[in-house]
Amino acid sequence: MKRSILTLSLALLVSFLFGKDPGMKKGTPEITSISVLSFNQDGILFVGDSKGGSIYAIDLGDNQKSTNDKALNMLDLEGKLAEMLGTTSDNVMIHDMAVNPISQNTYLSVSRGRAKWSSKWETPNDLVDADILIKISPDGEMSEASLQNVDYSMARLPNPIDSNIEHRWKKGAKLRSDAITDIAFDDGKVYIAGLSNEEFRSAMWTVPFPFTNNVEANTLEIFHGAHGKWETASPVRAFLPYELNNQKQLLAAYLCTPLVTIDATKLSDGQHVKGRTVAEFGAGNFPIDMVLYQNNGKDYILMSNSALPLLLFDPSDVASYKGEITEEVKGYLAGVKYTPRSGNGVQQLADFNEKFILSTQRLPNGKLALTSLSKEWLYP
User: Please, what's the b/e burial string for 81-109 (b: 16 or more CB within 10 A of its CB; e: otherwise)?
Assistant: First the structure.
């Protein structure tokens, strides 16, 4: 008996030290939509399933360390995907992208649904559920990543937005596609942004990892300078946990495009939390992705957008900004300074290696490329 207890204790310790969840089981996760992807530093893949209202942690066994510092470029990503999936490139759609920080393998959630696109405001998750996970090695080898017989665990979100509620201004779209809009892992916690079924719909869920049944839910409220009002129904589109002035914050971007800091220390179960709007970057746009990276030992944040160029900002500028936007902004620009970077058509972003950020980019010829952005070039 003592030996069994000791063996179990050692197994739990090893799981903790190597970022594995001792509550994981072997099997096939019942994911209904691969809506959002994110990795932690131990190579555990988090999958946000909007349709299922759940988050999954998956150990793909992808833990071979890569020291690659070269660029990865693929000029016709959709064409290569279409060839693999037996369809046409105009029907292939990428929903999200994440890079395993250990192996530098890139993972894409993919569907056969792009042909359904009819509005610049539609996101891939509005159109169809992603049901394919693709892996691309650092040297460009592409394969389908199997989710059969993997180690995984699951946490169910309390009260995500009802699956039958129609979007108010996107014809035919359901709000359920925004049940999970972004995921970030930080300091033993998974933060999940999206829409709840509460009166104030904008939500942030927090769950410890390894997963427990203790999923905390908060509703969010922000002042939107471009709209000139406080809002509670718009979800966070992209966010990053970051310590500002020795206090953990969530740096979050919304539709049309306010930048907000959310005090992570106030995220306790059931609380309604107000964010501090620190910038307005422009109307008629929605943020697609946000990535934190280092260049020459200094942190920078890069954000991709549907209609704006790449926006580069220094988190120290956010930390030193003392104001708060609480009135309508004329001209739609105010607050924390930023540096625009050319990047027409850039969509997904992920920190790739020491020298490059990986992106997907719609080229002038209409093709979607997988492109590497030099961190030296991005330097402001």
Answer: bbeebeeebebbbbbbbbbbbbbbbbbbb
The single-letter code of the amino acid at 113 is G
Q: What does the pLDDT look like over 352-363, one tens digit per residue?
A: 999 999 999 999
Residues 147-170 pLDDT 10s:
999 999 999 999 999 999 998 888
Domain membership of residue 289 (yes or no) is yes
Task: Please answer whether residues 165 and 174 qualify as being in contact, where contact means their C-beta atoms are separated by less than 8 angstroms.
Answer: yes
Instruction: Give tens-digit pLDDT for 179-205.
Output: 999 999 999 999 999 999 999 999 999
6 inside domain: no
Q: Which domain holds residue 262?
A: 31-378
What is the β-pairing status of strands 216-224 and 272-274?
parallel
Has residue 16 been placed in a domain?
Answer: no
At position 305, the amino acid (one-letter code) is N
Look at residue 8 and tell me if it is in a domain: no
Count up the domains in the chain and report the number: 1
> For all residues of the chain together, what is the average pLDDT?
93
For the domain that residue 98 is a member of, what is the CATH number? 2.130.10
